[in-house]
Amino acid sequence: MRLSKTFIKTLREAPKDEIAKNGALLSRAGYIHKELAGVYDYLPLGLLVLEKIKTVIREELNAIGCEEVSMSALQNPELWEATGRFSDQEVDIWFKTELSSGGLLGLAPTHEEPMVNMMKTYIHSYKDLPAYAYQFQTKFRNEKRAKSGIMRGREFLMKDLYSFHTSEEDLDEFYAKVEKAYAKIFERLGLGDSTYETFASGGIFSKFSHEYQTILPVGEDVIYYNKDKSLVFNKEVFNKEVLDEFGAHESEFEPTKAAEVGNIFKLKHKYSEPLGLKYTDESNTAKTVYMGCYGIGVSRVMGVIAEKFADEKGLVWPEAVAPFKYYLVGIGEKGSLKASEIYAGRESEILFDDRDLRPGEKFADSELMGIPYRIVISDKTLESNSAEVVERKTGEKKLVDIKKLFV
Ligand code: ATP
Ligand code: MG
Asked: Span 13-309: which CATH code?
């Protein structure tokens, strides 16, 4: 991408009402634009980051046999009435909209009910199971507080996976595969060191669910971990009864703030029962399908990464999610010419700052935008046929032979 050709600009000021660091930096660096509290637009750079996060998730889910779909955001209230969840007492975060012909439609806060209903068309016999369907889809939630930038949106991107099984054992087996896939996903996203699978409340159908919590000072959750972090609990299940069950004692644990980046749940019959999702077994007996659901907050993950790695100069993206790997600056006539040559054919890797600006302004923007490596080519570096490469994360500088820049 050539910066001279894009409409995006870095901004001196974040929106006045933006109090979260991630929201402020992403706005200033030209990744997002704020519409309303908790409602954001994604600009070309922001979209590239979201796509990179999606690619990591997609690859790991496809590797365990999941299939991608895309379900509608407008939802049929009848399905939610069947599970008792259309009422604002049950789900207090609904956005609802009116049909011109009368009656209400829901705007997707999540997709269990429509997903189960859709599967009723395709699941009839044990031969149709297991099935695993996921999507990257916009959810709408009337969140009371939306002060955490893109970490808590009223409209946000979620990955939601739903699994369908003949038995609890089969559900358990797949659940364990998802746990492994999630570990790989957060590792690849640069959050492996700081993200923990934690025990969280499971409602009435399972004793526990699991949350994936990334340690973050501005996180909205509190988790408790033991010394080697092998046992981590969400605050809501951190009590004597639960600790006794694990043979643990309160004094071994420390609290810390964290952001929930994912959540996995053994639903068992919670939605398949009221919505009548059944299959016939080998002896032709009708049985209720077992289910699991597995979420990742894709846009929240982007906010958490932005928030977590930023420094006083701006964003610092891990390579796997950076919109571009290199930020290229040419200084002087020969330097600029060489930079153009290098850019050709590497458009998807390089953000080329070919604007008519002073080098200092370009350097400041490269730091604000958080691109992992800045390559500077000047008449001076060309004397030794090299370029200066600066790593964003460490600030480490070195001269690299131009021929060896991308090897
Ligand atoms: P929270 O406790 O943070 O409200 P939740 O339990 O409501 O989360 P789920 O319904 O399990 O969340 O949604 C799956 C994932 O979607 C969460 O783990 C989180 O990463 C993300 N998520 C939930 N609500 C939001 C939101 N308002 N904005 C951005 N991401 C969200
Ligand atoms: Mg919530």
From this structure: 3.30.930.10
